[in-house]
Amino acid sequence: DPVQFETMQRVCKLFASSELVPDMYKTTDKNPIEKAMANCMIALEISQRIGASPLMVMQNMIIIYGRPSWSSKFLISTVNTCGRFKPLQYRITEKGMLGMVDYTEYTKTWIQGQNGGKGYYKNEAKKMQFDGKKVMDLECVAYTTAKGSDEILESSPVSIRMAIEEGWYLKNGSKWQTMAKQMLMYRAASFWTNAYAPELSMGMKTIEESQDIHAV
Q1: What is the pLDDT of residues 39-82, one digit of tens each?
Q2: Are 164 and 103 in contact (CB under 8 A)?
Q3: CA distance linking residue 85 with residue 199, whole number of Å
Q4: 189, 76 in Cβ contact below 8 A?
């Protein structure tokens, strides 16, 4: 619809001139107006699809390693306010001390090309053990019910053991070691949304997921 498209362009221009939007949506010397308006247009389209405020989408959709990712708090808020489900709740269970946990560590090794050929990086897997004798294994499940139903909808369980085995817990700068319960709830909420309301996340991962997966 040309009229609607023109209207959206005007709205995008207003957002691109605002000081309240993140840099990727704002017109600056490094971000020309054409690029800023294009980013605003995408954010507007996403906001219409999920029924959220355009400004909230812009504030909570972050590009991580070239891919759009949601803030975990925003994803949880979207589920809680969509009107289809009761607010998400979390069940955290202590599973006992971890003990020794086997995991795989991947390292990149540079392989020099033969006879002057081009070299390349090769991923090498190494079996390791984490000493978790003094670390409590916590497991978190996100759950709720749909409006008008008593059926409990649960996420897949997420645990500290899983975080170690998947490589999230031990990566550099990991928040799993300093705020484990919060990270468990964020990941459980993401698992729940992917299972029961993937249209709310539009297939995008959370910021924490994108950072963990990229590191691994």
Answers
A1: 899 888 888 887 778 888 888 887 766 677 778 888 898 889 88
A2: yes
A3: 14
A4: yes
